[in-house]
């Protein structure tokens, strides 16, 4: 797996999502809960906009001084006995992690939820060297058993129900109990406990890394990340280079924004910071620690008009309000990063060639921008992507290019415009019913297959106005 999920066309992915009634209901329900939770927290605070402004300022300052803070982070991790590796590409990151695993002769890797390891395809890379990788986040573990990619940044298995989970457990793990959530969770806990105890290496992602101390911090609700970091003697943390914060003070603010914007919590169940290896006199900590800092296209975004996309703290607030995501689901985006932030970030990290449709997966309603806790202007960046795709990349379909050229010539020719508007009603009459067009032809089909389109009026405005003028003159 990498940032791109499979080779199914965008149109087919969207159609599959639209036809999946359960997924759409599950997503709509989850969006409603998360959205109302975030709004309740914003109302509770009262000065939510001030906090958003502060979050934006923190992220802006950090990115403008990213070289300084990454060096400070690296120095402090090294002081605590850790090893730091800066990976320019996904391949470099995976190669380094593979070497660590091979040197330890590790056969089992247990890991907590991590978007960046999904992005670089780390699991597949470790399987290539003979390691068994086990996801310990409940949602990710379910999807791993089902060989299904995540569809949401915070709730990766939001598209599945308890009956589907029961079937997966029964087929893959011999589960014989009911579909009650308590029994499913109890079974998963029992299974995963054995994986924790037998793991040779633990791998975590990173929500934020504190430059002043070298502490790598992750935010969870299940406690699995603490098991991953407490038992295996060798630890690896993988972080996107933009996930650094200057001090614990900024960490406190961003975690507070993250938990409230994501699911409406005052504070998540576990906020864990790890700081290198176990020193003399300390009872906890790994014998060996590695921090892999991944670029993978991020540095090329710095200093550009899209730099604020790197502000993202992975709260998924934009996903939870997006009407397009609600109807097509996360898999339709074909990226490990779905929703509005995925539509902005994926083409920046992986190019337009395979993702040129994503900026169009938006109604441009602006809800994503409104809820973003660090003020990323998502809908404006989607518009800019569209401009680049058409004007610079020339990635728009040939049919669309021809249609736009034809429209320009038609719209600038009064005679052609007048004639076509006069003929519009007659031309669309075969698809007309009760003054609406259903299942219309050509460009109208994409709209009218799901909703009605108003039929052209019996009389054009120009014709009506001309008759009105004549009537006025005769009076």
SSE inventory with pairings:
Elements: H1 10-19, H2 21-45, H3 48-64, H4 66-79, E1 83-87, H5 90-103, E2 108-111, H6 115-120, H7 122-128, E3 132-135, H8 138-146, H9 162-173, H10 181-198, E4 201-204, E5 208-210, E6 215-220, H11 224-230, E7 234-240, E8 244-245, H12 248-263, E9 270-274, E10 288-294, H13 317-321, H14 323-328, H15 339-350, H16 367-371, H17 378-391, H18 398-411, H19 414-427, E11 432-433, E12 436-437, H20 445-448, E13 453-454, H21 461-474
Helix pairs in contact: 2-12, 3-12, 15-17
* Nearest-integer average pLDDT: 91
Quickly count the helices: 21
Low-confidence stretches: none
Oligomer: single chain
Please state how the strands of the largest beta sheet are arranged side by side: 1-10-7-4-2-3
Category by helix and strand content = alpha/beta
Mind describing the biggest β-sheet? 6 strands, parallel
**Strand composition percent:** 5-15%
The counted number of beta strands is 13
Q: What distance separates the N and C termini?
A: 77 Å
So what's the overall shape? elongated
> Helix amount, in percent?
40-55%
Work out the radius of gyration: 26 Å
What are its keywords?
475 residues; four-stranded mixed sheet; alpha/beta; single chain; 21 helices; six-stranded parallel sheet; 51% helix
Note down, in words, how this protein is organized:
The chain has 475 residues and is α/β, with parallel strands linked by helices. Strands 1-10-7-4-2-3 form a six-stranded parallel beta sheet, sandwiched between helices. A four-stranded mixed beta sheet has the order 8-5-6-9. Strand 11 and strand 12 form a beta hairpin. The radius of gyration is 26 Å and the shape is elongated. 41% of the residues are buried.
């Amino acid at each position: 797996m990498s940032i791109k999920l499979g080779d199914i066309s965008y149109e087919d992915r969207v159609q599959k999502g639209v036809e999946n009634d359960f997924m759409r209901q599950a997503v709509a329900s989850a969006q409603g809960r998360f959205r109302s939770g975030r709004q309740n927290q914003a109302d509770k605070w009262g000065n939510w906009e001030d906090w958003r402004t502060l979050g934006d300022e923190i992220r802006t300052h950090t990115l403008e001084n990213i070289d300084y803070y990454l060096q400070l982070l690296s120095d402090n991790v090294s002081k605590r006995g850790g090893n730091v590796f800066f990976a320019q590409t996904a391949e470099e990151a995976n190669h380094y992690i593979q070497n660590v695993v091979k040197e330890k002769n590790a056969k089992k890797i247990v890991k907590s939820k991590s978007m960046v390891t999904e992005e670089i395809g780390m699991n597949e890379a470790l399987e290539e060297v003979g390691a068994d990788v086990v996801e310990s986040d409940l949602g990710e573990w379910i999807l791993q058993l089902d060989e299904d990619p995540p569809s949401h940044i915070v709730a990766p298995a939001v598209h599945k129900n308890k009956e589907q989970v029961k079937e997966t457990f029964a087929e893959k793990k011999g589960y014989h109990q009911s579909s009650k959530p308590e029994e499913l969770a109890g079974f998963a806990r029992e299974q995963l406990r054995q994986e924790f105890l037998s793991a040779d290496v633990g791998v975590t992602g990173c929500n934020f890394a504190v430059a002043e101390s070298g502490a790598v911090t992750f935010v969870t609700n299940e406690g699995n990340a603490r098991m991953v970091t407490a038992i295996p003697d060798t630890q690896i943390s993988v972080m996107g280079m933009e996930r650094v914060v200057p001090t614990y003070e900024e960490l406190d603010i961003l975690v507070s924004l993250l938990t409230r914007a994501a699911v409406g919590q005052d504070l998540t169940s576990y906020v864990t910071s790890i700081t290198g290896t176990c020193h003399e006199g300390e009872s906890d900590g790994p014998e060996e620690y590695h921090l892999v800092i991944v670029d993978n296209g991020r540095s090329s975004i710095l200093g550009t008009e899209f730099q604020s996309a790197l502000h993202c703290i992975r709260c998924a607030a934009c996903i939870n309000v997006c009407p397009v995501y609600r109807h097509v689901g996360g898999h339709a985006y074909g990226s490990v990063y779905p929703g509005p932030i995925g539509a902005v970030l994926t083409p920046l990290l992986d190019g337009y060639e395979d993702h040129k449709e994503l900026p169009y997966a938006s109604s441009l309603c602006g809800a994503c921008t409104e809820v973003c806790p660090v003020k990323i202007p998502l809908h404006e960046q989607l518009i800019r992507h569209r401009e680049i795709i058409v004007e610079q990349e020339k990635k728009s379909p040939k049919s669309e290019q021809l249609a736009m050229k034809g429209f320009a010539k038609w719209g600038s020719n009064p005679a052609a415009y007048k004639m076509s508007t006069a003929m519009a009603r007659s031309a669309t009459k075969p698809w007309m019913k009760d003054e609406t067009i259903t299942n219309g032809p050509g460009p109208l089909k994409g709209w009218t297959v799901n909703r009605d389109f108003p039929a052209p009026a019996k009389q054009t405005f120009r014709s009506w106005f001309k008759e009105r003028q004549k009537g006025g003159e005769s009076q």
